[in-house]
Amino acid sequence: MRRATHNPLTTAAVLSLLAAPALAAPADLPAGWFKAGSHPEQYEMGLDENVRRPGGKSSATVWGKGLSQGFGTLMQTSQPGQYSGRRIRLSGWVKSEKVTDWAGLWLRIDGASDKVLGFDNMQGRPIKGTTDWTRYEIVLDVPPDTVRLAFGLMLTGRGQVWMDDLSFEVVTTSVNTTGQLMNGPPAPTNLNFEK
Q1: Which residues does 105 contact at the CB level (< 8 Å), separation at least 6?
Q2: Band of the pLDDT at 65, cuts 50, 70, 90?
Q3: Topology annotation, domain 12-181
Q4: For the segment 100-148, what is each residue's pLDDT rounded down to a tens digit?
Q5: Where are the domains of the chain?
Q6: If phi over 0 gives left and psi between -120 and 50 gives alpha, with beta otherwise, what is residue 183?
Q7: What is the Cα–Cα distance from 79 to 96, expressed in whole angstroms?
Q8: Which residues contact 172 (CB under 8 A, 6 or more apart)?
Q9: Which residues partner with 146 through β-bridges?
Q10: Ramachandran angles phi, psi of 40, nearest 5°
């Protein structure tokens, strides 16, 4: 069963109420992708054939229109497949225009019963303002009990962001993870409350 919305954020602190800049509305959603977020109806999402990386035909975009609040995300989900039990890197190119709050690529590792096993939405290294095409990456572990990968591009508030040329690759454990482990520390700590 596919949910109508997914919340890739970890805190409610990113909610905002802002007016939108005059930017171009996108076309249809790209195949395999869907619109989600806390307020997806306040965001336009789709393909953009006018803004793209050199050599490409189009990019995907999220546009904060009107009084955009919460966040919108253009996202996809998949089974873990060949990445199960491995450390993976999601990388992609993002361009931004007039982002007044923040934006970022995101990746969530889901276990059974919607338990979040790992997560990174770039909130600690956000995309803001107007930027040219820049490569970003997220590195997370995919435990063997992973049932789903969820990922995409998100925007909070006003502005527009584009993504292109995303890729997944297996990396060694010498590559540091960028996100949070959601299943807690490796052992109980501070049981006497003296730290």
Answers
A1: 90, 92, 94, 121, 122, 136, 138, 151, 152, 153, 154, 163, 166
A2: confident
A3: Jelly Rolls (2.60.120)
A4: 999 999 999 999 998 999 999 999 999 999 999 999 999 999 999 999 9
A5: 12-181
A6: alpha
A7: 29
A8: 87
A9: none
A10: -60, -25
